[in-house]
Amino acid sequence: MNHVPTLSDIDVRQAIIDACLDMNRLGINQGTSGNISVRSRDGILITPTSLPYKTMTPQDVVWMGFDGRIEGTRQPSSEWRFHIDIMRAKPNVNAIVHAHPTACTTLSIMEKSIPPIHYMVAVAGGHDIRCAPYATFGTKELSHNALSALEGRAACLLAHHGMIATSSTLDKAMWLSVEVETLAKQYLGCLPMGEPPLLSEEEIANVIAHMSNYGHKD
Question: Which side of the chain, N or C, has fewer Cβ within a 10 Å radius?
Answer without folding.
Answer: N
